[in-house]
Amino acid sequence: MSSTNDPFSQLLYPMLREQPSVDASVITQLSRAPLQKSAESNALRHQLFDASADQIVSCARAISTAVAGGGRVLACGNGGSATSAADIVSELLRPSGAGPAIGALSLTADIAVVTAIGNDVSYDDVFVRQLLALGRSGDVVLAISTSGNSENLVRAVREARRLRMLTVGIAGHDGGRMRADGVVDHLFIVPSTSVHRIQEVQTTLYHLLFELVQQHLMEVPTCA
What we know:
This protein is of the alpha/beta class. 54% of the residues lie in helices and 11% in strands.
């Protein structure tokens, strides 16, 4: 890699001719930031897991019972939570451990379907329409949100309950409408206002949850 001091680099990037000085205290603060943020996330993990340990185990057993009976996991979310939905689905379809693969669908994965429903019907119904077409009684709907207020997720869990599916929600802050509406069978809330910390803890939560599901499935027979 060529140096920024050579004539060609100076021609392309004249702003690099003079390097600004950085106070040592700024460097010290920057070096401490990752540790501080990690400590914040770990504190939230302890807070959530201490308060919800029994609920996590109960939810994992309910999911594994549904899966053992032939149910699938249908995951949904918006933005970064859509990535989380895709992440857990890929883990379930191809587990890294010894557990069995679990039938799962990410309702955010097919951009043609998502944009068609959003354009022709409403983005608020982008998950409901897929549940009507693909969902079955006994499936598990996993809704992931940092705020818990997304209209399309609230509508999705309502419809899932009407269709007699198990509903699992993972939210942040105070749980938003997902909590207020009381339409989620198992709701986990990361009590933070930081989107970054919420998503970090949510990732740990859903991986832990489905590790427990995998363990339970290895103990019980599944539906042929």
